[in-house]
Here is the input.
Amino acid sequence: MAKRPIRKRQYCNLVGFVLTLVLGLFFVPAGVLADDPEVTITRLDNLPNRLFYFDDTPVILIHDPVTLTVLRSADEGKTWNPISGVDSAVRLIPHPHNNEMAFIIGRRTTHWVSYNRGDSWQSFETSREASLAGNTLSFHAEKPEWILFQGVACDDTGDGKWGGGRTCWDETFYTTDAFRTAPELLLAQTSQCIFARSTPDTAGAPEKLIFCVAFDPNTKPGPGGIHSYKDSRLFSSEDWFQNTKKFVDLGIGKKAKGVVGLGVVSKFMVAALRAADGESRRASGGDPMHLYVSTDGLEWRQTRFPHSALPDLRENAYTIVESTTHSIAVDILTSPSANIGTLFVSSGEGTYFVQALADTNRNEYGIVDFEQLVGLEGIGIANVVANREEVVGWGETKKLKSVITYDDGSSWRPLKAPEKKVNGDDWSCNREDPSTCSLHVHSVTVPHNYGRIFSSNAPGYVMAVGSVGDRLLPYEDCDTFLSTDAGLTWSVVQEGAHKYEFGDQGSILVIADDEEATDHVHYSYDGGVTWEELNLGITVRTLVLTTIPDSTSQKFVLLGTATRKDSGDGRHAMIFLDFAPLQHRQCIGTDMERWYARDGEGKECLMGHKQWYQRRKLDALCYIGHKFKDPVGHEEDCPCTDTDYECDFNYVRQDGECVAVGPETVPAATCAKPDDKYLGSSGYRKIPGNTCDQSSGIRKDEKIEKPCSLARPENGKASHVTHEFDTIVSQYSYFSYSQTILLELADGTIWQSSNEAFSWKQLAAGNSFLGVTMHSYAPERAYLITNQRKVFYTTDTGRSWNTFTTPMEPNNLGIPILDFHPTKSDWLIYTGSTDCTATLSNNCHAVAYYSTDHGRRWKQIEQYVRTCAWARDSRLKIDEREIICESYRNKKGSQKSGDYNPLELIAGANYYSKKIKLFDAVVGFASFSEYLLVAQLNEQAGTLTLQVSLDGYHFSEGQFPPSMRIENRAYTILESSTDSVFLHVTMNAATNKEWGSIFKSNSNGTYYGLSVEHVNRNTAGYVDFEKMIGLDGIAVINVVTNPAEADISGNKKIQSRITHNDGGTWKPLNPPARDSLGVDYDCRSTACSLQIHGYTERRDPKATYSSPSAVGLMLAVGNVGEELAAYPDSDLFLTRDGGFTWEEVHKDAHMWEFGDSGSIIVLVNDEEATDHVIYSLDEGLTWNEYSFEYPIRVRTIQTVPQDTSRRFFLLGERPSDPTKTVLIHLDFSAITQQKCQLKIEDPNHDDFELWSPSEGRDETCLFGRQTLYHRRIRDKNCYIGEAVEQPRSIVRNCTCTDSDFECEFNYYRDSSGKCVLVEGATALSVSTEYEQCDGFSAFWYERTAYRKIPYSSCEGGDRPDRGKQHACPGLIGRPGLGGLFWGSIAVLPFALAGLVGWWWFTKGSQGGSIRLGDHRAFGSDASSGALSTLASVPYFLIGVAQASWAWVVRKVPVLEDLFGRRMPYRQVPLDDDAEILATYEDE
Here is the structure.
């Protein structure tokens, strides 16, 4: 209620309750008895829409929006007079920092200002009319006469329907004398300007600093008079923009555009950016809003939220709620359809946010049910939606519950219900169970009075309208409650809902009926124990009950609407209530008490001190009478405890403790010798604003002595830290886009590093873990699976860990334990098992459950399943509640038995409540981009059919050439992002002699043509096939050149091939002329080329050829010759141009890792134990050596998944003790301190070059276009830092050439390169009318032996894909079809008995069924063979690291080398798919 003037209230400009004024005034003094309060009535014709007090004065102004007049009262509302000299008062504005000034905005260019609290008014002129769209005036907190005025300028355009039409834009003006002289132009084409010192807490910013959100001053708004938000930028000036206009780049350079919001909250300046369409780069699916914060107006930092909280953060989807000077509180809209949010609180500098409260209640305006109590640090009341799942999923009414915090949001608890009802009866619920019986109160989303909702400056007094039970009842069914101890305990003061107000620092309480018209109010002088009735002399429907903002007066005003019968002198009434005539004595010292604020557990220390106020004893019959004097809060410092400290700079909280994120900088003149020590941070600092006494408590921020070996190295030098673990590391996982790593050891323990392996801490000691699972879509989430029903999880990248309980123990059937929803991070599917502990159990089976509240509640999906998963994907936009299961047909027996039991594929809508059987028998399914691929089992024939769908319901069969049917063959679906599917079909499955053919599909995934033969694969089903990351259409394979001989001898001869047109043609790799020592290669025959070792031989699957952040770079181990040499006889080769040219950069085989987007490359010996690494800062031109303590046999070298860091770690073991793991953290970040400069406007003076894959060769185009990329100049000595945003600017589309075409279905390229028909095959129909007549094309062309590569954008030239031309008969629309993103599924044959498929899949999008013609491309081929199955690439290889495999590895360590934890074919391209795929890159 009215405890603060409007300028201090959070939602005053949004709530919009109705207030305003009248033409005529009619004063009616009500009858007043001796010692009775005084009542004076002023009748109004119209409701005011603005009411405010001048702070610490009795003066009130109200604004009548109908007559555009202003009334003034100099005696707290007893008498009212219209002001003079003002006509057409459109808007009334108080000065937020000066209680003398107020402003009236007029219709045109004449406005008024008062310098004496509205007693007199002076007019002033502006050259533009006022802008009423936002804040017309902006004020300086310390210079009250410095004011910014927002005006509107317009031009007549003549574009209107009748020859008129105007284009308008905003201009900002400034005054330094409060409009005593004419304001001057500050800046044109603005949308908002503010002073950096807009609040008293921003004193750290320069005094004259101004920020403006502005557009190009030379560009007027577009159609409709609206600028595009994409063109808005933030500018600053300290000289009123007279000579300087600085572009504020927010620390991100030229990308700092699209500024849609700017504000000052406490000490924080906040700017909101909206990313342009298609520019959102967040891994889990699109983050269109970005917030930046500054505390000095000079340095800006991007805020960091846990990404699971931001599935759809959009403009107006977040609300900055009441914040302290120590942090910002932001509520984010997490369920847009239901207006439900999540509250986050920032760190001290406003950058890193942690979740404070889930499921907060919001309204459609973004206002959040959260309010802090006045004058009491850390205490606030909020409402949460207890039935979020039902509200979001089924549209049920919100079930609101109220909670209170005493530690600034760290913990919350229900409001304790009063002991009795107002009549003394007990409540109908059990007060001992707060979950079903607590107090719930109406809050700020639906305000019922003016000002603050719960509290005022009256110390400890809190009032609310609410109900007791398990939820909040409707307002009209609620009662009125009071607390005198800041919400610890409550009492019912009146039945029914009432408006309420505090006066005289709480010594008098006034309430008015808020359910129906009333002729009286009640008041209490004893803290609500007894209530007296005061007759108003008029019956009104109460609208507002308020008093002066600091609640120190005994005078109140009540605004109400009278009945129609009583509206002759004005329908509305402003009723003045004065309780001073009661003439109680003034309080003296013995009437006062010292009241301490306490938390929910009775502790009196808040923010390091006890807070207490002198307030009147509740039973003292006296008045305080200190009008305009706020109650003075006193503080008594407490001894410091753990709760008084937070993590120091460069430290993060990990499992309750603060750990360093990397080496710290040592003080000057220290660490002269390697064995010296220095005083460094303990990892903790006292919370800003905390006043605890360290002398009598713990001191966690005291500097501690550290060895200089742990300090940041000198510039130009690398450093390392060695860690030893007592057992084998069986799994490691990075949190994407972070520095945090999880290690799983063979002894079942989990270790965490929050600083890229610099230091480690064991998690949840005493627990035994089966495995680690990273969330597939929310990169800040991970799950630790125990062998019990407890799962540890984090939602903030390991800063904190919590637990939830699963409905049963995890399964040991090889089934993924957890499946994740792509857009709802809290939605989980858990698969456990029952009756599986006994070896001979006859009832062992899996049971799947789902949860929509992150494991708090579970509901069963199905029993006897092999896989259950969410059907929805970020690109497959079907019902988000649909679940797809592979469900065994016969629900009996043991899933371990091996007995044949067909798997049905079931799609279940509404959380599997409405089931549809898709197929009677399958051996697996997977989603790629917008495709759903299913391996259908034809039970009678014992064959497989590949079924393809674009909507998950309508399927079409994949078509292959007649001699290459896949029913009886193993096949592997390879990756692609170029509008087609690559499929490897095994042609020779003999052990150690495997090879096959790669087929490529048309754009809808149904017709498959031969791309290349004799491609090498291994027994596990993996293929020597790898795409280049970042450059579309480039892939490398290894082929078997002696297939017939190898089938007999078992000795494959391998050669490497590369494609630059997405498999249209394959060529040998061009060999370099000489080796790294400058010696010429003996390579003269045409069969001599560069041969490189492929994926099937790679001991560390994470060592991909290329990097997601270094476009064009590839590294490979190989040799120059006619065939691939043995790995120990190979050397290291590099290409900088996507595989067109190669050079040998080092002798011998090495493992490698890219860092800092390729500016550093680190190699480690891969043939024997080593005590050093070698690194290059110029992409292999020169190499340096860095040594560590002792030799280890390195198993892997790793860095952050995006390859953007200069820190790495090695995992290996000493040759003398292979049972223990040695981990070495390598830090190269001090080698150079010079950051590379990218200057788009001045490319001749920066550190980057524009490069195209076409440079230096005859083929100038890839996929029919020439594209330019930025890459660091090779010999520049600088580091890149964050990944370079590649513009991918297309210089031109090229003329079509042979490389833009491939063979049509059932055709293949012969030795001459021509496409010829497969023997015995039938060509597709020559008619392409249905495909080409899409409603936009005038002609269609007959089909030929060629087809254009779908991804090519070439234009004109020779078109061998076009036969005879025909006119299109009419408009036939067809939906566009998207391409596949990266993924891999291996398909292996199997025997009938003992089938357990280990499963993993990704999901895709875009609706619409695939359409096939009525014809068949070839005749019936019913030949049956051995029963086959789809056994996907084991999920532990491709990113869903599950517990069962980790357990197996611990039991059979040799499997660790056979199966690494890197998905074999998934890469992260620098395109839209990278947002989805980045979460898998580290797994």
Remarks:
- The chain is about 5% helix and 35% strand.
